[in-house]
Amino acid sequence: MPTIKDVAKEAGVSIATVSYVLNKKDTFVSKDTRRQVLEAIERIGYTPNVTARNLKSSQTRLIGYAWHEVPYDQVNPVLDRFTYHLAQAAEAAGYHILTFTYPPDQPLPVYDELIRTQRVDAFVLAGTVRDDERIRFLLEAEFPFVSFGRSNLDWDFPWVDTDGESGVREATEYLISLGHTRIAMAAWPEESISGSFRVQGYLDALDNANIPFRRDYLVRGEHSEQAGRDALAYWCALPIADQPTAVIAITDLVAIGVMNEAERRGLVVGRDLSVMGYDDVPMSQYLRPALTTVHQPILEIGQALVSSLENVLRQTTPSNAHLLIPPRLVVRDSCSPPCC
User: 3-class DSSP state for residue 315?
Assistant: First the structure.
């Protein structure tokens, strides 16, 4: 007896698309695709299980969100806060968050299963990377989703993001206003989309101030305290006249590594070296000195994502709606004019 998988193969579409047509949720499916599916059903003689389908005919009011595995030395309180505020915003809108996990190198099978079993109405993505296969898969499956973060894919999809480019540009401009010209940045690997925008803000601010960019001032590493330590150790190996007087870290955690390495080397942060973070995690204000950083509006982002997702599900706004939310600079004690 033919199965839904056979229909998908015959029609040249995903199983999720066939499921949408069968369950009369094909507002997310083009007319041509719907016709392909119906013709494939007729050709192979597929008979759907009406009883099972009727049990699944109503909305689940569940939004799927993948819980990210974070290595022991790469704590990410931002995503923890994001998950809380996302759940809070979803509940206020009458939804609940269904969290799940997947192997880091195989994200798609669990998304496919949740779609096929109709466990969720939509997904929220986070932690987007270059050529993110989750985005491509969900677009091809024509399944509703919104993303916390952008992508380099040449396809439109709905996303909400912090304007990291403007945030780091403002942070760099602040250091320049203090008199710094030797400003380094501890960044993420190039595959990080959000990291790339933050680096661009750094480069733009230098260019606008006519400060030449030095390739040895941009060091990339993972999201860890050790990455900050390694970056400062590298810069401290440069000739004294070339060593940076200020460092912008891609996150507060990396900034903490820079500060710890500075202390180990006898440098006083806020006097001998200015350090700028990004995220404004709660611990940043309790460091000594308190960390100057860029605050991410996580509460607003969670609310905006749920609002965008509601619009996608209701089809009341374009499914490729984009929203950039500006961060803000939080000035504390870790930055000061260069001492020499």
Answer: coil
DSSP for 54-104, written as a single string: HHT-S---EEEEEPPP--TT---HHHHHHHHHHHHHHHHTT-EEEEE---T
For the record, the structure tokens of 86 come out as 């996302």
Looking at residues 312-336, what average pLDDT do you find? Answer: 85
- DSSP summary character for residue 101: -
Angle (CA) 207-163-140 rounded to 5° is 115
In the DSSP assignment, the letter for residue 212 is: P
Pair 304, 241: CB distance under 8 Å:
no
Distance CA 245, CA 264 (A): 17
Write down the number of H helices and E strands in the chain.
Answer: 12, 12
Q: What is the pLDDT of residues 261-301, one digit of tens each?
A: 999 999 999 999 999 999 999 999 999 999 999 999 999 99
- pLDDT-derived band at 50, boundaries 50, 70, 90: very low
Cβ atoms 149, 128 nearer than 8 A: yes
Residue that the structure tokens 């022991």 belong to = 72
How far is it, in rounded angstroms, from Cα 194 to Cα 190?
A: 10
Q: Give yes or no for a contact between 232 and 261, defined as CB atoms under 8 angstroms apart.
A: yes
Determine the straight-line distance between the first and last CA of the chain, rounded to whole angstroms: 80
Q: How far is CA 166 from CA 74, 171, 172, 202, 326, in A?
A: 25, 9, 10, 9, 7
Model confidence over 185-223: pLDDT tens digits? 999 999 888 999 999 999 999 999 999 999 999 999 999
Tell me the average pLDDT of the chain: 89
- Asked if residues 279 and 251 have their Cβ atoms less than 8 Å apart, the reply is yes
CB 218 within 8 A of CB 227: no
Segment 61-102, tens digit of pLDDT? 999 999 866 666 666 778 888 999 999 999 999 999 999 998
- Give CA–CA dist 187/172, Å, rounded: 14
Q: Check the CA dihedral 17-20-25-31 and report its sign.
A: positive
Q: How many CB atoms lie within 10 A of CB 131?
A: 11
